[in-house]
Amino acid sequence: MSDSVVRTRVAPSPTGEMHVGSLSIVLKNYAYAKRHHGQFVLRIEDTDQTREVPGAQEQIISILDKFHLPADEGPIVGGPFAPYVQSQRLEIYRLHAQQLIEKGQAYYCFCSKDRLEKLRDQQRADHSPPKYDRLCRNLSPQEVKSKLDKEQPYVIRLKVPDHQKVSFTDLIRGQIEFDSDQVDDQVLIKSDGFPTYHLAVVVDDHLMQISHVMRGEEWISSTPKHILLYQAFNWPLPVYAHIPIYLNPNGKGKMSKRHGTVSVGSFLDQGYLPEALLNFLMILGWATNDEREILTLDEYILEFNPQDISQKTVVFDLKKLQWLNGIYIRNLTNKDLISKLKPFVPTDFPSQFLPQVLPLIKERLVVLSDFEDLTAFIYRPIEINQKDLLKKSSANQVAEQLDQLISTLSSLSAQNWLTLQLEEKIRNLQEKQNWSKGQFFMMVRVAITGQTQTPPLFETMAVIGHDLTLSRLNQALLTTKKVT
RNA sequence: GGCCCCAUCGUCUAGUGGUUAGGACGCCAGGUUCUCAUCCUGGCAACCAGAGUUCGAUUCUCUGUGGGGUCACCA
């Protein structure tokens, strides 16, 4: 093999529900690894004990599962670089931080949080950039030893060099350059002994032989910290690709909870199909050569190249997602649709009707949770609005129409209560009486469903059944005469 | 505010030193039709601005403007 092994990773922290942005990053890392026959690694970054949410790790793994993006290596499946949970690797980070101290690349810092806060306040007031003032950087070895002996709490910081160009090549944006003067003396080990993200990510990516770091664009500005660390360790850099973030559907700001749905779980709960959501994530900010928009994971893997990702932030266009979801729903077999619909069928829905009802709503579903609204009139009591009923005709006329319709339908046995028979009878009546199609059919629709927008009339009546249809027609007849 | 990233229809994109700047979603109109939806047809709609390079810039360069990100013992 001429090109070296591709190993990608995704490194979520178990602090809550997974964001669609994270899923998008997962998708890209997965696809790239698969395309190059490499490995896709899942690593759990749980170095902030205060933010950890129980069960979040399991949730992440289950989502990867639902979307068919399983990790080749990770906490559950294991792998040659286990453990894959950072809280289980504390000793590794300690050792590496220690190594940096011995090499003179890092130092102990005993400053209290209080002092740092005051320092920042001062800097803010002076309009100077908020940075650590390096007070502890030049402590003598004796001073350090004595503070350590007294068990004073400390952190370990990186000695960031002055006036140094820090640059790297981003697969999506080309060369990006920073000045090391912009970089703070980063904390590597926190006072609780846990590593910060910056130390852990560099150490683990190196140890786990990650070849490509594909992550969100919001990490660009901390990349120089990571580069400086790689240099301090004298390790080779991975290839970076910073993927544009998603903006809220209104185009304002990074996609966030405040502006609507953001978690993968809540999209699923609304009845977006995983395949549709994934497809949407594929074509958001990226296009195939021939601009096909409906594609499977395998087709995506075949074509995906991070270099082709758009460089600009993209708006999360819900309308387009909805369009895709509708397509995926319509492409489902009825059997599959029924099974996917299960969680969205209300408990009072007479489930034996599902097979008959399905064709009436299949092309009307945008998300699966639309099921309830689309079908409620079938099995729940309806309210008939007199105004809708009499919209295009007089009360007397409508009463006459209902009366005749009822007697016509009464002659139809329950066995013959079928779409075709209903259609024939009702059309005959309408034609014989020369009633306006629009007015008559809409009036009947309102009488039977209580709504002005429904699936086709005869099919709907067939599903509702002989008894209920007639009772609703009678109910409508009463409504016609009701004085308001 | 400092630093960094970005800029083609409302949105997602294709594309080129000379094109009628293409497609998709959305929107509008028409067709099918008992309404809605599906489906089909058509339409509206974009190269952020200024300067430079050039015979010629949407395309290359610079500046401006606009948008976004980031500035923690959070990731």
| The top level CATH class name of the domain at 89-243 | Alpha Beta
How would you characterize the largest beta sheet? 3 strands, antiparallel
Parts with pLDDT < 50 across at least 5 consecutive residues: none
Strand content: 5-15%
CATH architecture call of the domain at 89-243: 3-Layer(aba) Sandwich
The CATH homology group name of the domain at 89-243: HUPs
Report the C-alpha radius of gyration, rounded: 32 Å
Mean pLDDT: 94
Q: In angstroms, what separates the terminal alpha carbons? A: 83 Å
Coarse structural class: mainly alpha
Widest sheet, order of strands: 3-4-7
Q: If you consult CATH, what is the topology of the domain at 89-243?
A: Rossmann fold
- SS field, number of helical segments: 20
Helix content: 40-55%
> How many strands in all?
11
Q: Looking at the structure, what is the overall shape?
A: elongated
Tell me what you see in this structure.
The protein has helices spanning 20-35, 56-66, 90-102, 113-126, 141-149, 197-207, 223-233, 264-270, 274-283, 297-303, 318-331, 334-341, 354-361, 371-379, 386-389, 395-410, 419-433, 437-449, 457-464, 466-481, and strands at 7-10, 39-42, 106-109, 155-158, 165-170, 174-179, 187-189, 212-216, 239-243, 246-247, 314-315. Helix content is 45%, strand content 9%. Among the domains are: 89-243, HUPs (Rossmann fold, 3-Layer(aba) Sandwich), CATH 3.40.50; 333-374, no CATH class; 386-481, Arc Repressor Mutant, subunit A (Orthogonal Bundle). The strands form five sheets. Strands 3-4-7 form a three-stranded antiparallel beta sheet. The chain has a two-stranded parallel sheet with strand order 1-2. It contains 20 helices and eleven strands. The protein is mainly α. The model has no long low-confidence stretch (mean pLDDT 94). It binds one RNA strand of 75 nucleotides through α4, β6, α6, β11 and α11.
